[in-house]
Design goal:
232 residues, alpha+beta, five-stranded antiparallel sheet, 12 strands, 30% helix, elongated, polysaccharide binding, transmembrane, transferase, EC 2.3.2.27
């Protein structure tokens, strides 16, 4: 059942428009589809809760390309990825693609003037607010350079964390270094309408057809009586 009208959590700022299949259940009734439930927090921000992964703020919903962009309310999505394994399996959303990354905590000197072996091989994450620098570098199962990168980082005093696999936007599927850990990009497949909505549509169509038929029968009966009157 589609929403009767699209809404926003707030008219100020750039809050996304909420329309089918998404819904704010306490404001749009039964419109929308289960699993696409959004809420509005006290600041007028749009919130999506992913099962087992917690709440994210919604930056943008692209209904044409079926893309939803989520961000961390504390402004550090990379730290959240590192602290908690992201699980979208129990949600209706999926990634455009997935890439595996290693996080490394490094002394500032290791990344301020990196050696040639590291040039263009890592992403500098600036939101951790720690004494050490946190960098991220992609891991490829078919690449032999990853172990070399790890060796160089270890030699520079970096502590490498366990790898994590996360969804990435479409452009980062082709070029992983285009992803800056700013937002979480997810997509979805339009859900099928519930069977009862199709049934309701069929019932309404049948009623409309019957109404037209009754009207036509009444019209022809009326015309027939007029013809009989003129004959007399």
């Amino acid at each position: 059942q589609e929403n009767r009208y699209p809404i926003k959590c707030s008219n100020s700022g750039n809050e996304p428009q909420i329309s089918y299949p998404f819904r704010v259940k306490d404001r749009q009734g039964e419109g929308g589809y289960p699993g696409f439930d959004l809420t509005c927090n006290t600041l007028g921000e749009t919130v999506l809760r992913l099962p087992q992964s917690g709440e994210f703020l919604v930056r943008k919903i692209d209904y044409v390309n079926k893309e939803i962009r989520l961000y961390d309310q504390d402004g550090c999505l990379a730290r959240r990825f590192q602290q908690q394994n992201l699980n979208i399996n129990l949600s209706p959303f999926e990634g455009f693609g997935f890439r595996t990354f290693n996080f490394a905590n490094c002394p500032p000197s290791a990344t301020s003037h990196p050696p040639d072996e590291l040039a263009g091989k890592f992403l500098d994450v600036r939101c951790f607010n720690e004494d050490t620098k946190t960098i991220v570098f992609p891991v490829s199962p078919t690449s032999t350079s990853d172990s070399k990168i790890s060796q160089v980082l270890t030699r520079l005093g970096c502590v490498i964390k366990a790898p994590i696999t996360i969804p990435v936007p479409l452009n980062a599927v082709r070029d992983v270094y285009k992803y800056g850990f700013d937002d979480l990009y997810l997509t979805w497949i339009d859900p099928k309408k519930p069977p009862d909505s199709d049934r309701k549509g069929l019932v309404m169509l049948i009623i409309a057809v019957i109404t037209v038929i009754i009207a036509l029968i009444g019209f022809y009966i009326k015309m027939g009586k007029r013809c009989e009157t003129h004959q007399y």
